[in-house]
Amino acid sequence: MPAPAPISVAVVVPTFARPELLARCLAALAAQHLAPKEVLVAMRAGDAETAAAVEAAAGVLAVRVLTVDEPGHLPPLAAGAAAATADVVAFVDDDAEPWPDWLQSLVRHYDRPDVGAAGGLVFQPGFEDGVVADAVGKITPLGRFDRLAVHHVPREWRARDVDVLRGANMSIRGDLLAEYSWDARLNGGAATDYEVDLCSWVRRGGFRVVYDPNAIVTHRPGPRPELGREHDAQAVYAYSHNLVYVAAKALPLWQRPIAVALAFLVGSRASPGVVTALFDLAARRPPSLRRSLVPAFAGKLAGLRSAAAYVRYGAEPLERVGLDVTLRVCPACHELVDGVCPCGGQRRDGRRVTD
């Protein structure tokens, strides 16, 4: 009996206006012990600096460029997922640098047919990097998923089943991912907690979600040009909306009312609830009505309305997930082209190559 074909993997890198960070990410992908079948860089049309960073990596990576018009974090992810042709689709942020054995550590888990998704440790230097976690990637019995500890060092260094992976270090079977409906209602702000929705969907399909601490990416969060300040009113609103919407949509039926009630009654620093606000008042650090309390409760109410719409209509499709233009890097002149390159295979040094 012939040996089974090796599992192929595509890597999707969403990016916008961060060419220096993207260049480091692509360099790390070029150094992988397991070479990806393709790297899909999903970017905005007209982002010339990002295009230049991709061109610089073309000599060492099989790169394809996808352009998206719709703003937000989810359209480039959906575009990459739709364009990928590999057995496994991995996702990494443009401000993350995978370690050399990242893909190798992820792909080995797909030898098991019951594994639907796999991810690993997101090492974030300077942010709680000395904290050791007993539980990683687990939703609490009360339905809280705002403390997943995926960037903490696990106390036991072993692969284990989890509830949620982090989008900066995540992979999914390609045929499974093709069936997932990306939800435009989650696309506000930084699209927080979309991973909870996606991983919960994988588990509801009867597949395992595996966390392997050997699959490491170093994450150095870069600026987000479209989002403004991290804790402004708009960000609090979007975060609070997704918190409630995902809880009401993705958790087991018995957990949903508990998690939603806790979001309103207790809340957190990122999205205050009644108890959090009263505690801060007692501690003489009252939260801002305009920048914190009002957008938090308004976002949560909007999340309930989105949950009601989901029950009636299902996921709201992304209107345009990109793929308006699919570009590749010409192996001769290293320019981004659509179709046949006008250089005719003529390299910049005058020699010809076979395309």
Q: Strand tally, please?
A: 13
CATH topology of the largest domain: Spore Coat Polysaccharide Biosynthesis Protein SpsA, Chain A
CATH C-level category of the largest domain: Alpha Beta
How many distinct folded domains?
2
The CATH superfamily name of the largest domain is Spore Coat Polysaccharide Biosynthesis Protein SpsA, Chain A
- Helix content bin: 25-40%
Proportion of beta-strand residues: 15-25%
Shape: globular
C-alpha Rg (nearest Å): 21 Å
Q: Helix tally?
A: 10
**End-to-end separation:** 35 Å
> Under the CATH scheme, which architecture of the largest domain would be assigned?
Alpha-Beta Complex
Q: Could you please describe the fold and organization of this structure?
A:
Strands 1, 2, 3, 4, 5, 6, 9, 10, 11, 12 and 13 form an 11-stranded mixed sheet that branches. The chain has helices spanning 19-30, 48-57, 74-83, 102-107, 174-177, 194-204, 233-250, 256-265, 274-282, 289-313, and strands at residues 9-14, 38-44, 63-68, 88-91, 96-98, 115-123, 132-133, 153-154, 160-161, 170-173, 208-219, 326-329, 336-337. It has 2 domains: 9-219, Spore Coat Polysaccharide Biosynthesis Protein SpsA, Chain A, CATH 3.90.550; 233-313, no CATH class. It is globular. Mean pLDDT is 84; it is low at 320-328 and 346-355. The chain is α/β, with parallel strands linked by helices and 355 residues long. The chain has 10 helices and 13 strands.
